[in-house]
């Protein structure tokens, strides 16, 4: 069971960093899928803080390697302050995205909280993509492909400084799981920075259980566990409602095991749910699945265990 039983839902309705429109509707789709009441049914104290406000998506081409940089900065600053405020108040923030560029604001806030509280940080990045691009490496300029690089100090000054410390996190604190689409230059950069990546081939060969045992190894009572869950982590056959579908992701059972093993640690302290795009979904099934998996993070188990 999660040790932290008071949760704040924070909607961040923007697709400012994405290559397809529609992730801005993600927070509402998660609410329609009953994320609040579902968590309450597990004895969690849930407050829905509503949606944050930020600049509209101007839908312009990239400028000097970045699309919508000013707007991305504005949104991430708002997210940073909101997530940080919940942590300061002793509540667990669940950020309802929105596209994954917002992971920068969220995780930089978590890192700031951990620095001040003297805690270690472990970030699980559940995603089809490494999101470790820079303006030199990215073909598109879409900043949702850059948040991990920015958190590790590689990116435009305005973004990497949001958390008050550069870099916001050390690459060694991250475990990436489910990766199966990485640009060629990005691949080299991931290796250079020694990110720990459990890609789909690793999961195929070793299984999800072994993968998660390694990803969660050495967590202790002084570790804050942050999960950044990009819905495109899942196989598109079960989760079509994302802008960048990459076949060959975890199955329903693999994803459930992943979430249950995170829950078993009792260390989950903050969560992002990103890139849900209802415009591309089928009868909200991806949002319903996401809520089902989040429920497992809070102790719903498929087995009767003593």
UniProtKB/TrEMBL annotation:
The keyword Lyase does not apply. GO terms for molecular function: arginase activity. Binds 2 manganese ions per subunit. The gene is rocF. Gene3D superfamilies: Ureohydrolase domain. Pfam families: Arginase. The keyword Hydrolase applies. Pathway: Nitrogen metabolism; urea cycle; L-ornithine and urea from L-arginine: step 1/1. Its cofactor is Mn(2+). This is Arginase. Transmembrane segments: none annotated. Belongs to the arginase family. It comes from the Bacteria. It comes from Roseateles violae. CDD domains: Arginase (cd09989).
């Amino acid at each position: 069971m999660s040790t932290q039983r008071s949760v704040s839902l924070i909607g961040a309705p923007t697709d400012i960093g994405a290559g397809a429109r529609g992730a801005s509707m993600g927070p509402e789709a998660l609410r329609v899928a009953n994320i609040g009441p579902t968590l309450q049914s597990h004895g969690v104290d849930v407050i829905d803080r509503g949606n944050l406000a930020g600049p509209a998506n101007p839908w312009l081409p990239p400028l000097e390697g970045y699309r919508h940089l000013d707007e991305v900065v504005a949104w991430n600053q708002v997210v940073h302050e909101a997530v940080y405020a919940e942590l300061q108040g002793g509540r667990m923030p669940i950020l309802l995205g929105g596209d994954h560029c917002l992971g920068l604001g969220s995780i930089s806030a978590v890192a700031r909280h951990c620095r001040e509280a003297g805690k270690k940080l472990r970030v699980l990045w559940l995603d089809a993509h490494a999101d470790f691009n820079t303006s030199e490496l990215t073909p598109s300029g879409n900043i949702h492909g850059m948040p991990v690089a920015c958190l590790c100090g590689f990116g435009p000054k305005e973004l990497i400084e949001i958390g008050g410390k550069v870099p916001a996190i050390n690459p060694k604190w991250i475990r990436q799981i489910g990766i199966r689409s990485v640009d060629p230059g990005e691949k080299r950069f991931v290796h250079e920075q020694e990110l720990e990546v459990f890609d789909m081939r690793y999961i195929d060969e070793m299984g999800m259980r072994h993968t998660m045992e390694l990803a969660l190894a050495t967590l202790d009572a002084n570790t804050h566990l942050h999960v950044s869950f990009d819905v495109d982590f899942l196989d598109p056959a079960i989760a079509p409602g994302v802008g960048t579908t990459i076949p060959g992701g975890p199955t329903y059972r693999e994803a459930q095991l992943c979430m249950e093993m995170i829950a078993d640690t009792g260390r989950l302290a903050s969560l992002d749910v990103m890139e849900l795009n209802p415009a591309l979904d089928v009868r909200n099934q991806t949002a319903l699945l996401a809520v089902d998996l989040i429920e497992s993070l809070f102790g719903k188990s498929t087995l009767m265990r003593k």
